[in-house]
């Protein structure tokens, strides 16, 4: 799988839908967000190798959650770099990096937690 330029989010789950990525993939285009989950949606990018080529730019974030959405990204390996905010979690939403730390997700801007969001 390859993700090229996109006006919104490469991976997007909303209203309790689940998007479970099971194969390694490449990001070679810009987007507002790479992963976005809101209103109970779940995006899973676990135990993958994710390759970024050409330094894609994320105008919002690499990983973004709202209103009880979840991004589960533990145990993945990121190869390459990106520009933009690493993550943002808002309104009782969760981003799970598997204790990957603040610099786990690609980007060149620090992540952010707002309105009872959680990043672990």
Task: Give a written overview of the molecule.
With 120 residues, the chain is mainly β. It has no helices and 14 strands. The strands form three sheets. Strands 2-5-8-11-13 form a five-stranded parallel β-sheet, with no helix packed on it. It has a five-stranded parallel β-sheet with strand order 3-6-9-12-14, with no helix packed on it. A four-stranded parallel β-sheet has the order 1-4-7-10, with no helix packed on it. The protein is globular, with a radius of gyration of 12 Å. The termini are far apart. 42% of the residues are buried.
Short synopsis of the structure:
This protein is mainly beta and 120 residues long. Helices cover 0% and strands 48% of the residues.
Write the layout of secondary structure elements.
Elements: E1 2-3, E2 9-14, E3 18-20, E4 25-27, E5 31-38, E6 42-44, E7 49-52, E8 57-65, E9 70-72, E10 77-79, E11 83-89, E12 94-96, E13 112-113, E14 118-119
Parallel strand pairs: 1-4, 2-5, 3-6, 4-7, 5-8, 6-9, 7-10, 8-11, 9-12, 11-13, 12-14
């Amino acid at each position: 799988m390859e993700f090229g330029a996109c006006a919104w989010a490469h991976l997007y789950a909303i209203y309790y839908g689940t998007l479970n990525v099971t194969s390694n993939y490449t990001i070679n285009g810009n987007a507002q967000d790479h992963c976005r989950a809101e209103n109970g949606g779940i995006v899973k990018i676990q135990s993958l190798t994710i390759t970024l080529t050409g330094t894609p730019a994320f105008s919002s974030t690499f990983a973004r959650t709202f209103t009880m959405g979840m991004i589960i990204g533990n145990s993945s390996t990121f190869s390459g770099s990106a520009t933009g905010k690493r993550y943002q979690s808002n309104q009782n939403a969760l981003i799970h990096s598997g204790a990957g730390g603040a610099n786990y997700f690609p980007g060149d801007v620090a992540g952010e937690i707002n309105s009872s969001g959680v990043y672990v």
